[in-house]
């Protein structure tokens, strides 16, 4: 086998992530690597924390970037917070809710599942019923933006319920951060994780995480050590903490942090509100065009994510053939259906840098060709 250098084509990424990376972010990635305990890098970590606090709309001191993808952010929240025997109410309305349940079980916790039909938002009434029936529950866990279906749940209402029933909230914001309204402090979110490669339009492999003072207190009061050494945040705190000397825990992905810092700075310069609005505006344009093509949305109008548009594949149209055609002819990637939607839905992402008019026009024109 002759192995040669790899030159990826320039694709337009309109799937469920990774999304298109801003060239400025790619340029940041190519800057010279410095030591991870270099004072200049420590300063960059501090700035990254501040930028993450802005993105999450939080004053939480514990706001960091886990050195691994969104799934590791998910695992970070569960392995640190959930102790053996803890009861967790887990909302499942797609693939990522099921993974939360899997995490709870592996932590030795007891998962009380609130199931919701795929393609729908989590039902706050069903959650309240579960909270009433389980007064000893310690956590409420749900996915804000369910990327497997394109459904948006009411994080504000769900977190208010968690507080009312004395539970800490654990929120998956992998696809929501930067794309739709999200206010960690105002909504009283206790533990939240995200990903770098969805609406932040950074390279994959980093997971922003923020924990409230209540969540940090719960971790500090653990009776048993966190079973994962790498994800044990009592150890990681010494690495990301600003006070005094940094202690070596692991080596941060230095260049990826340059990229994250750049993408967060671009978001701050645009402002969150403008970014949320841009996603909504581009979604409206895409929606109009998709409806013109005769495609139907899976998620009811009020529960749709602007950054992830799930449409039914029309009768007689072959899923893989169309996606191959888009990739080969237009260098355009859209997402296949996942789980229950495999083979019968497409997921069209408008995430971060990819949420722009050129992409909407390209996608609509290419899909029109493909369908004819
Ligand atoms: C993408 C995604 C994840 C997982 O993130 P990875 O970076 O792929 O590990 C988790 N939850 C949701 C809602 C996602 O969209």
TrEMBL record:
InterPro entries: Aminotrans_V_dom, Aminotrans_V_PyrdxlP_BS, PyrdxlP-dep_Trfase, PyrdxlP-dep_Trfase_major, PyrdxlP-dep_Trfase_small, SP_NH2Trfase/AEP_transaminase. It comes from the Bacteria. Its cofactor is pyridoxal 5'-phosphate. One of its GO terms (molecular function) is L-serine-pyruvate transaminase activity. Substrate binds at residue 347. PANTHER family: ALANINE--GLYOXYLATE AMINOTRANSFERASE, AMINOTRANSFERASE CLASS V. This is Serine--pyruvate aminotransferase. It comes from Planctobacterium marinum.
């Amino acid at each position: 086998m002759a192995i040669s250098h790899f030159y990826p084509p320039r694709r337009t990424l309109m799937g469920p992530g990774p999304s298109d990376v801003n060239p400025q972010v790619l340029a940041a990635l190519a800057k010279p690597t410095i030591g991870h305990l270099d004072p200049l890098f420590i300063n960059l970590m501090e700035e990254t924390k501040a930028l993450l606090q802005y993105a999450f709309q939080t004053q939480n001191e514990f706001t960091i970037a886990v050195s691994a993808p969104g799934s590791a952010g998910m695992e970070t929240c569960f392995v640190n917070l959930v102790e053996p025997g803890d009861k967790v109410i887990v909302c499942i309305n797609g693939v990522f809710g099921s993974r939360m349940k899997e995490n709870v079980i592996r932590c030795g916790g007891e998962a009380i599942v609130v199931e919701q039909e795929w393609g729908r938002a989590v039902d706050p009434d069903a959650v309240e019923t579960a909270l009433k029936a389980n007064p000893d529950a310690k956590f409420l866990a749900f996915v804000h933006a369910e990327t497997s279906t394109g459904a948006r749940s009411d994080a504000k209402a769900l977190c208010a319920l968690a507080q009312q029933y004395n539970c800490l909230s654990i929120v998956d914001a992998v696809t929501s951060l930067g794309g739709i309204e999200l206010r960690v402090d105002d909504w009283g979110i206790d533990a939240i994780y995200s990903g770098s490669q969805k609406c932040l339009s950074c390279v994959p492999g980093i997971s922003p995480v923020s924990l409230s003072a209540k969540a940090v207190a719960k971790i500090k009061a653990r009776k048993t050590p966190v079973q994962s050494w790498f994800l044990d945040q009592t150890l990681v705190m010494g690495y990301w903490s600003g006070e005094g000397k940094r202690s070596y825990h692991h080596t941060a992905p230095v260049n990826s942090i340059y990229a994250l810092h750049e993408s967060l700075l671009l978001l701050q310069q645009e402002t969150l509100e403008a970014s949320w609005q841009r996603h909504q505006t581009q979604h409206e344009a895409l929606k109009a065009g998709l409806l013109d093509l005769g495609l139907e949305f899976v998620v009811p109008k009020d529960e749709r994510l602007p950054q992830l548009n799930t449409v039914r594949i029309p009768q007689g149209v072959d899923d893989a053939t169309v996606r191959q055609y888009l990739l080969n002819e237009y260098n355009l990637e859209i997402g296949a259906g996942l789980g229950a939607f495999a083979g019968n839905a497409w997921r069209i992402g408008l995430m971060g840098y990819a949420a722009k008019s050129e992409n909407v026009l390209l996608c609509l024109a290419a899909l029109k060709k493909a369908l004819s």
